[in-house]
Write a structure and sequence with these properties.
Elements: H1 21-46, H2 52-56, E1 60-63, E2 72-77, E3 80-86, H3 89-97, E4 120-124, E5 135-136, E6 142-145, E7 152-154, E8 159-161, E9 173-177, E10 180-183
Antiparallel strand pairs: 1-10, 2-3, 3-4, 5-6, 6-7, 7-8, 9-10
Enzyme class: translocase
Region (Disordered): 1-20
Cofactor: [2Fe-2S] cluster
Length: 184
């Protein structure tokens, strides 16, 4: 006859004892539940990745030999216009001269192009006010002018006057060679 004490804990294993079958069932159930949660959540997480056609437009390469000095081309990148401008020496000198001028979003000209490639300016061609497309050659500073609300940008794409709060954006880009640039 076994000795029993009224009110004693029926748990037969105390801390430090070997796990029994019930512990194994608890661990297996927790692992199965965790796997099920991950299995259910994965399709929702995976659908947030960009689709293949979006990834295909994530970057664009452009042949710079198509742009003569003093000209600008506009290409489409990620659904937005992208300005690629081959600046003249006079435009570069004017942009560097204006580095110390009062601006709403101060930035030096050398921070807006790649080192040693001051003639190539790559900008997202949407006004930072409400997203209109500014035109080159207008405005008070010889750069871009937004006809929608009158923002004036200089030849470096820096906002100088008007309601736009920021400079024209410079996207991530790199030179693949002296005549080819990759944006994005």
């Amino acid at each position: 006859m076994a000795d029993t004490v009224a009110g004693a804990n029926p748990d037969t294993h105390a801390a430090g004892d070997d796990p029994n079958r019930r512990d194994f069932i608890h661990i297996a159930a927790a692992a199965a539940a965790g796997g099920a949660v991950v299995g259910l959540a994965w399709p929702f997480i995976d659908q947030m990745n960009p689709s293949g056609d979006t990834l295909a437009l994530a970057s664009v390469e452009f042949d710079l030999t198509k742009v003569a000095e003093g000209q600008q081309v506009t290409i489409k990148w990620r659904g937005k216009p992208l300005f690629i401008r081959n600046r003249t020496g006079a435009e570069i000198a004017r942009a560097v001269k204006d580095d110390g001028a009062s601006m709403p979003d101060p930035q030096k000209d050398e921070d807006r192009h790649k080192p040693g490639k001051a003639q190539w300016l790559v900008l997202v061609g949407t006004c930072t006010h409400l997203g209109c497309v500014p035109t080159f050659g207008g405005g008070d500073y010889g750069g871009w002018f937004c006809p929608c609300h009158g923002s004036h940008y200089d030849v470096s794409g820096r906002i100088r006057k008007g309601p736009a709060p920021k400079n024209l954006a410079v996207p991530e880009y790199s030179f693949l060679s002296d005549t080819k640039v990759k944006v994005g």
